[in-house]
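Assess this today:

___
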Amino acid sequence: MLSLKDSWRRLASNGLIIAALDFLLLALAVYLGYAVRLGIVIPEYIADWLTIMCIMPLVCVIVFALFGQYRTIWQHAGTEDYNKFLWLYIVAILAFLLINSLFKLAVFPRTSFAISFFAGLFLCGGLRFSWLMAKSIHARSNSQRLRALIFGAGEAGAFLARDLMRSGSELRPAGFIDDDVSKIGRYVSGLRVMGSSSELREIVRTQKIDVVLIAIPSANGSKIREIYNTLSSLNVQVRILPSLRELAGGTVSVSRLRRVKLEDLLGREPIRINLDQSMNYIQGKRVLITGAGGSIGSEIVRQVLSNNPAEIYALGHGEQSIYLLMEKVKADIPVYPVIADVADDTAIHDLFSRYQPQVIFHAAAHKHVPLMETCPREAMRVNDLGTRTIAHYAGESGAERMVMISTDKAVNPSSVMGATKRLAEKILEREQRTYPETKFMAVRFGNVLGSRGSVIPKFEEQIANGGPVTVTHPDMKRYFMLIPEAVSLVIQAGALGHGGELFVLDMGEPVVIREMAELLIKLCGYEPYKDIDIVYSGIRPGEKLYEELFYDENAVHGTLHPKIYVSNIKAGENTPNPELDTLLTQALSNPDEALSILKALVPEYQQI
């Protein structure tokens, strides 16, 4: 047997039944119009009354049907649905008056018409609103729902509160928290703004709050971290609306809520790039992106697509990663997959000869520090020979510019990976002198949250397996940034560069890896050192406790972008070794000599 709620929902979803109810309610409205105006219907008006009581409801139902009123799911209706009903009702009544005037069907006294008009609006509107009210009453009576406190009484919070109240979800909004003192004590979407963030803990305790919802899409990492730390010792869940960037093109609703992620707590103020400036050099151009199947490369593809290039060539060595990228890419702009090795001279020569790319983003590289310690030849082959090959053909074919992804590990490198990326920077500087018409530039990153091979997925897997979480050293620090943030820097660097520059992002303060592990354990609902232990495995070959960003800070200058700094690629270094090509070829031909040749080419490399 269906419950009352299920019966009501099924009734609401049946357009024919709603149409029949509309007809009967409008007929009742006509009767009320005559009865209130004339008393119990006078015999001389019975014919007019019966005619109007049939024609007016029929015209209204036809208009409603033609414009989709009976396809609306009224238990999920919003303001726009009720506005549409109002306008359609007015249109239907005007259509009835026109028909009655043209064909002189019946006498309809003006007072009776006015009473019937408002009675019909009230009855049919009430019918539609009743489904929303029934759902809300049912939801409020559900004792299993969790009491939710919404942090942020702005537009996003108000939308979220209304959606919670009418959605019947597991969450029942109890009120708001907001730091705007003018809002405290007032009501938003029918809920009271209970206090400011300084009172958050006390309100959570006294109001028996189960879940705190952060509804501030513009909040930066420090604000989210402040809220999270305030609640960390309380037994409450914390959920968050995505950032403005994630919400772009979407709507604020219960379905957009998610649990707080590490990126939310570590993220800084989002980098804002000059899109117009970026589009000037990408718009209408043929763009080559190497390493397009990787974390950074695939995000470059996404952001470049938004800048309207003529076409994109997505180059990757692994067919699976390029296949997955192509499955995700949905755009009118052509994106052509290219399976090739960046160090394959024949393949790269053919690519440039065939397609003549004008803008190149070079993200292909080996980046895993401990693995590259055991494979110096392979690191040099991809990171250095690959860079030389791409840069050589970019210059030879007359490409406009090439932006290479580098790393903070290239500064006073202690690892093979860092040394090969420093050598790649030197190669880029040499190609700039060889091909001055092409603008070559490099961008240094810190670690990227969520990228393949990064520390976060490893920690998450260890936590899922019950621990322990392994950290190399209690004082290990690293710079971190988000993938979209890193790619924004790449896009902007391409616009700012005139050739021969090295760009670095102001990455804020470095993060202690141990503290990151503790935070991630808490986010997963466990207590560090009690539920999940943290153990120290020792610094791995090639790793440093701290990373650096520049060789010579005195050679660093600001740019038009307040969070991007620039120096010359060769700052702090002599001209690249004139025998670079010969030595590189020798290293690739004799793997046993690769490491010693790398040290000769990068004298600042100090192996740990």
User: Anything to note?
Assistant: The radius of gyration is 33 Å.
